[in-house]
Amino acid sequence: MRGIGFHDSVCAQLDRHWLDAVCADRPVRIQHRSGMLWVLNSCALAQLRIAPGERLPAGAERAANGELSGRFFDLDAWLGARLRTAWPSLSDVSAELARHGITGVTDAGARNGQAAWEALCAACERGELVQRVLVMGSEELAVSSRSWPGRIEVGPLKIYLRDSDLPDFAALVLRVQAAHAQGRAVAIHCVTRVELAFALAALAEAGALAGDRMEHAAIADEHALQALAELGVTVVTQPQFIAERGDQYLCDVEAVDIPLLYRGAGFLRGGIALAAGSDAPYGSTDPWAAMRAAVERRTREGVRMNADECLGPAQAIRLFGGDPRRPGSGLRELAVGQLADLCLVDVRWEDLCADLDSRHVDLTVCAGRIVYAAARHAAGPGRSPGACVPARRRCDHA
């Protein structure tokens, strides 16, 4: 049993014993919403086949008595190798994306290499994954992978920063320059002021390439906005986190940073290309919910966060449109002869802007093929013609 989205506000010290008390007879593993921690119960720990006295990575936490607590920090690859789990079918998630009108996704995993590439290619070939896919990942991905024209392509080099363990600055600059030398942009994960400042300094030193992007840019002050604009770097943000996590942010985030949190209009006013993604499974896969969040910026408790960062409905829709290789490029214009990637909705554009909701998705067409049709699509007379929304979007997942 796998759970995601856990936060410490639910349980201050989730560990194996807490999970055992809830479910002891089957393997359970719970992921923190940051993606940096897995917590396993005793049954799941047994599946790791850890030998007595075996030396474990530093991220495997032990209690004061030396017993494993069941908490594993930043050990996804190690856990995956020990559990030897098979790649899951992507049919259900692909169908869910199609119901939302999604025709293209970006897998933004920093560790994606040859194995992930081959698994995604196989899923496309089996028809499990109907969307087009842009795959970020490590240097290994760029060297060992070839694009599958029209369906799956290698995307930017993903660089994951943590201000508690930043890489050597010169080494980061060289890493960016090496990617650029291969014609490959970089996508740098930044959720703190320090991470964003560090990433921008490295890009300024290395030189920016068209397509370079900041993932999240969760806390961006005016100095960061100026640097982003000067470098021509795109920001890919997650407005739905204001709706999903805003109340917790108001408790956890320093007051001085609240006005800078997951900005919207501020980026556009600064002349910065802006796009959005889900960060799924850490956020909802529904882009329409994210659009509403970008417009309303209200938490679940109804608190409006930073009203001057609100976007207009049309601006919110553009966050998820255009070419995934050029996020922030806005909606494409439809033209005769294009291979259709579009979402047909059941209301006119003006009505859609007034009610950004996935229930309006009538038809999803990917590469000229219908991949979703609403049950009401064949309904009788009385339905007004809808608007066509070229609907590419970005979906991050671990």
Structural overview:
This protein is α/β, with parallel strands linked by helices and 398 residues long. It has three domains: 2-83, Diaminopimelate Epimerase, Chain A, domain 1 (Roll); 91-318, TIM Barrel (Alpha-Beta Barrel), CATH 3.20.20; 342-389, no CATH class. It contains 14 helices and 16 strands. The strands form three sheets. Strands 6-7-8-9-10-11-12 form a seven-stranded parallel β-sheet. A five-stranded mixed β-sheet has the order 1-2-3-5-4. The longest helix has 14 residues, at 193-206. The radius of gyration is 22 Å and the shape is globular. The two termini are 17 Å apart.
Write the layout of secondary structure elements.
Elements: E1 2-6, H1 16-22, E2 29-32, E3 37-40, H2 42-47, E4 60-62, E5 68-73, H3 76-83, H4 91-99, E6 104-107, H5 114-125, E7 132-137, H6 139-144, E8 152-160, H7 169-181, E9 186-190, H8 193-206, E10 213-216, H9 222-231, E11 234-237, H10 240-252, H11 265-269, E12 274-276, H12 287-296, H13 313-318, E13 342-345, H14 349-354, E14 361-366, E15 369-373, E16 388-389
Parallel strand pairs: 1-2, 6-7, 7-8, 8-9, 9-10, 10-11, 11-12
Antiparallel strand pairs: 2-3, 3-5, 4-5, 13-14, 13-16, 14-15
Helix pairs in contact: 7-8, 8-9, 10-12
